[in-house]
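[job 4471] stage=fold_predict status=RUNNING
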Amino acid sequence: MKLSEHGSEAGADTAEENVPAACGPRKRRPGRPLSFDRAAALERAMLVFWRLGYEAASVKELTAAMGITPPSLYAAFGDKERLFLEALEHYEEQRRRRVEAAVAEAPTAREAVARWLEEAARELVCPSHPKGCMLVTTAPRGSEAAAGVQALLAGKRAASEASLEARIRRGMAEGELPAATDAAALAGFYTTVVQGMSIQALDGASAGKLCAVVDAALRAWPPAPGTAAPGTASR
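[job 4471] inference complete, writing structure tokens
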């Protein structure tokens, strides 16, 4: 059933419209309550962005999925870019932070990486939502108008890699990894594996195929100090 809309929701003063998207989602002016479920509409918008990407998702497609009119979208979220920022935050709250918590609780750096990769292998092809990682698949390419969104997504991906590097360095400090381990390169390698798995998922890869990739990637983990690398004979 389509929810009713009211043209009065579209009212927004000039100052609010000129607030840069980087400042975050615009606070809605007090007044008449929204005539639709904002949280449910945001969830639907997230799925559209996730499936089509930021640039390909039109206002027409977004409002059709959300069950609202364009004036209502602008009144509740500001504009397409602010809507995307909220949808991205919603995505992270639902999915990425759950994975990060599991990684943080892992007893070793290797176990943290294994949990991250294994969760990704399942999540990237889960049939209940679009394939791939939203931080990877929605990124705009070369559009000056979307440069801010592109930079934001790149920053979030970099932050995830930095978090992984910090966990690897902790493993080094605890004697799990050789002191000569290149933590930045190792974090970059596993981040690249996950991002590549995201593209594989878009191309129709199965969970089994991605799990095989995970197994191969984990074999590249550096041996513990004093332990021979896999496939090497002891002298």
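[job 4471] summary: Residues 147-173 form the longest helix (27 residues).
[job 4471] exit 0
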